[in-house]
Amino acid sequence: MLAVQDLGVAFGDIEPLSSVSFALERGEILGIVGESGSGKSLTAMSVMGLLPLQGGRITRGSVNFDGQELTRLPEKEYRKLRGGRIGLITQNPMTSLDPLQKIGIQIDSVIELHLGLNRTQARARTVDILGSLRIPEPSLICDRYPHQMSGGMKQRIVIAMALAADPDLLIADEPTTALDVTVQAQIIKLLKDLVKERDLALILITHDMSVVAQTCDKVVVMYAGRAIEQGDVQAIFHRPQHPYTQALIQCIPHGLAKGQKLTGIKGVVPTVKNYPQGCAFHPRCERAQAICSQQQPAFISVENSFEGLRTATAGSTMKSTVACHFPGEQA
Amino acid sequence: MLLRYAGQRILMLIPVSICISLVIFMIVHMLPGDPIDNLLRIGSSPQERALMTAKYGLDQSLFSQYLLWMGAMFQGDFGQAIVLRRPVADLISQNLPYSLTLGALAFAFSSVVGMLLGTLSTVVKSPMMERFVRGFILLGSTVPSFWLALLMILAFAVTLDWFPVSGAKGWESLVLPVLTIGFGGVALVARVTRVALMDAKREDFVMLLHAKGLAPSVILWRHLFPHALLPVVTILALRIGWILGGAVTVEFVFGRPGLGSLLIRALGQRDYPVVQGCLLMLALAVMLGTLIGDLAQASMDPRVREAKK
Amino acid sequence: MIDQKKSKGFMRAFKEHSVVRAFGSVLGKVSGGMMILLVFVAIFAPWIAPFDYAAQNLMNANLAPSWPHLLGTDEFGRDVLSRLIYGARTSLSVSAAAIFISISAGMTLGAAAGYFGGAFERVVMTVVDLTWSFPDILIALIFVAIIGPGLTSTMFAIAIAYLAQFTRLTRAQIVRLKSETFIEATINLGAKPSHILLRHLLPNALAPVIVVGMLAIGDGIVLEATLGFFGLGAQPPTPSWGAMMSSGTAQLFLAPWVIIFPGVIIALTVISVNLFGDELIRSLDIRERMREN
User: What is the pLDDT of residues A262-304, one digit of tens each?
Assistant: First the structure.
């Protein structure tokens, strides 16, 4: 239902995002992972059509949503999709709600706008949704102001707002980063249940590989504005081809044997202004050869057989795509 | 909730008023020169002088003078003007309406035009508009008001003969003073509105408002504008005192009666009770201004209502 | 931050100094250049002015701008341009001196209030808030009324009118800095209050105060002119921009240039002070800290 093809984004003459492609169906959760500054949020903003707000524009590629080409969609049509068919959940619930308006009104407005209900009908629906998100005393909550609630509660409100007009696609941009660890797990579980109950498609943007492993069906790994590896979650976690993906997986603290060292990735993420020539990862890569600093690697499809793997169905194959001159499992 | 906040806020005014009245009383008694000199004919005897001093209570201790003054004030008695030989309350009630009309008009003019200009400069994305507003803000906040008043007279009263040069007869005489005071006010309000709107635009929640699919005009008027209004209201409330008291120069140039002119004249003649009365009225205006500002802010921002519990 | 600069060459340190960097933009160059020019004119007034500022010549009274009186003459036949040039001395020095006094006193009060807190802080801040919400022209007028007209009292009146601003700003900076880790560490290490205040807090609070002070010099010039206009500032024949306009009012219809030119100069001065102040704020990168005022 959502297909992004060869997406490129520019801010002035800087190109922080190039050749990003992925596809997503109803009931699926797609994880986009990467360190901060890798272009995760920009991808989300491109799909939402909110790039111009930050001064950016889509220069290449296509975003196809349910047969509609979004890159050429007039702003007025786009506004019907936003909040209506595509919901957004932002990173920091503390600052995501208008502090001067009561919570009920902030959710009502989405319903009134997209579903054309009147005030009382909208409020009834708001209370329903809040209740379905296991928020206690929903009708009382409606008369509260954002500063009167906890972070986890606010994030539930933001989720309720995203769900208010019954969307088909939900984009969650680091929905748990600003929350306490215990609340994080609750919110992730909530999102997972919602996808199941409502047959939604969900894009989950995060820098946390373990969250991806627990929740997602598909993964896109981003580095320096490019999708360097992607595929089914099984394939990525059990047969990672790109050295960066491998390093990310190794960074997950659990599942290590006793005595095994917890590794980090050497070096720092390049900033948008100085993406390295060739493969952007080569300055930090152990496999780097001369070609890596000269030529950008093309995307290669890899098919993995999962024989002998306990978690996968015997004999099935899982596909992934990787952009690396020397792909392959770790030596 | 709002009522309780208002109650607390008004209670807080009591110590402040006592403080203000003390300060004003002290200032006035630090003024040099003896008002009795103005009243006595040259060559009056010391007996006549003592009689006169006693009549105005100037022979008692400072503290008892203060108590007497405060006590009388609660009965609406602001004392007797020494030089003008009339009750101060009369003088003030005679001049106050002029100040209030001028102040109210200038206030309305500067807030409406200022907010409009400030909003326009952030909404209309043209370099011309931006430059115009920035230039206007710079000019309005730097040009001395008495000079502007003189230029106004020169251009619109003398050369073009559209409005009277001075005086306070009819609405025509109000136009130039209002414009003069308003000019600086417009610049100030426009600047605060502009900065506040740009700050509000950068807030995180604005992104989510766009993501809700709201039209930009709805976002501007229903969400950004209320936010921008908070600092504007604070500034405007402070401005109430400024416009009443700061109008001194404009009243002077245009030869208008008003609290400012009265104060200037009283200062020149060392007429203690009048100076006291004028300062007290101005202080009252400043206090009322901040009170109104705080209440307006509390009614708009739920966080303020609760923070000051 | 400052120590790093010492190791660099002098020229490099000079070029990287924030005041020099403020000259970087076009606006910075124009406004900064204008300020330097004004100070230059004020200092060298006797050599620059074409006529004696006090020389009266009733035959030449109220001449319109023409050669040799480029900006005309006033009702006593005195050359307006020469009086403007000498007036720069009065206006600039009175305003600058006033602001200097105001900054010194305001920083002392504000630092003491911010550092010691308690009842002392409450009393100081109540008085400061009171005067702050009063129009500065009224404060100055009352003060001049107390100690009598003249340039000295004008200076003190301006100083008092802006005292509240510097006290507030310094206190806000000190309170903010006090909660920062490095200051807390210094306190916990047992440094003396005077050491912390003089070596750590005040130097860090200085930049915003100086910039606000510079902007206030512009306001001070306007205030000086206003007092002069009321006849409470410079007394004749001392030329000051405001006093020139005061005597010019009577001749408004006859010789408008007598009041137009001083006003233009005041406006130009204050505008360049403001523009340069903006550039300084940018080059010092203290916009956020200025907001606290």
Answer: 566 777 777 777 788 888 888 888 888 888 888 888 888 887 6
Q: Is the CB of residue C258 less than 8 Å from the CB of residue C249?
A: no
Domains of chain C: 2-292 (1.10.3720.10)
The tokens describing C98, both together, are 């006033």
- Residue pair B39/B82 in contact by the 8 Å Cβ criterion: yes
pLDDT band at A202 (very low <50, low <70, confident <90, very high): very high
Name the CA dihedral angle for A220, A222, A226, A227, rounded to a multiple of 10 degrees: -20
Q: What is the DSSP letter of C59?
A: G
What is the rounded distance in angstroms from the CA atom of residue C286 to the CA atom of residue C293?
A: 12
For residue A4, the model assigns a pLDDT of 92
- Of B54-63, C108-117, C265-274, where does mean pLDDT reach its minimum? B54-63
Contacting A with CB below 8 Å, chain B residues are 203-205, 207-215, 223, 226-227, 300-303, 306
Question: Mapping DSSP to helix (H, G, I), strand (E, B) and coil, where does residue C57 land?
Answer: coil
Contact residues on chain B for A88, CB-CB shorter than 8 A: 207-208, 211
* Domain extents in chain A: 2-221, 224-254+262-323
Class (C level, CATH) for A2-221: alpha beta
Angle formed at CA C228 by CA C224 and CA C232, multiple of 5 degrees? 110
Residue C24: burial class (beta carbons within 10 Å; 0-12, 13-18, 19+): middle
- Listed residue (A222, A273, A219) closest to A244, CA to CA: A222
- Which spans in chain A are helix H? 40-48, 51-54, 75-81, 93-96, 103-115, 119-132, 138-141, 151-163, 181-198, 209-215, 233-238, 243-251
- Strand order of the β-sheet with A2-11 is A14-24, A2-11, A57-65, A68-69
Residue listed under structure tokens 């980090």: A264
Is the separation of the CB atoms in B41 and B308 below 8 Å?
no
Shortest distance between the Cα of C293 and any Cα of chain B, in A, equals: 13
User: Do A145 and B303 form a contact (C-beta atoms < 8 A)?
Assistant: yes
What is the Cβ-side half-sphere exposure of residue A41, based on CA atoms within 13 angstroms?
14
What number is the average pLDDT over the span A141-147? 91
Mean pLDDT of B190-204: 87
Query: Per this entry, what is the length of chain B?
Result: 309
Between helices A151-163 and B204-211, what is the axis angle to 10°?
A: 20
- Residue C219 C-alpha from the chain's centroid: 6
| Span of A207-211, A216-220, C73-77 with lowest mean pLDDT | C73-77
Q: What's the gap in Å between the CA of A96 and the closest CA on chain B?
A: 4
On whether any CB of chain C is under 8 Å from the CB of B109, the answer is: no
ipTM of predicted assembly, 2 dp: 0.86
CATH architecture of B88-307: Orthogonal Bundle (1.10)
Residue environment code for C224-254, b if the CB has 16+ CB neighbours within 10 A, otherwise e: bbbbbbbebbbeeebbbbbbbbbbbeebbee
B123: confidence class by pLDDT, cuts 50, 70, 90: confident
Banded model confidence at residue C290, pLDDT cuts 50, 70, 90:
low
- How buried is residue C16: exposed, middle or buried, by Cβ count under 10 Å (0-12/13-18/19+)? exposed
Is residue C217 within 8 A of residue C96, CB to CB? The reply is yes
**pLDDT per residue as tens digits for the range A232-256:** 888 888 888 888 888 888 877 665 4
Residue B174: how many CA atoms within 13 Å on its side-chain side? 15
Chains B and A, touching by 3 or more CB pairs within 8 angstroms: yes
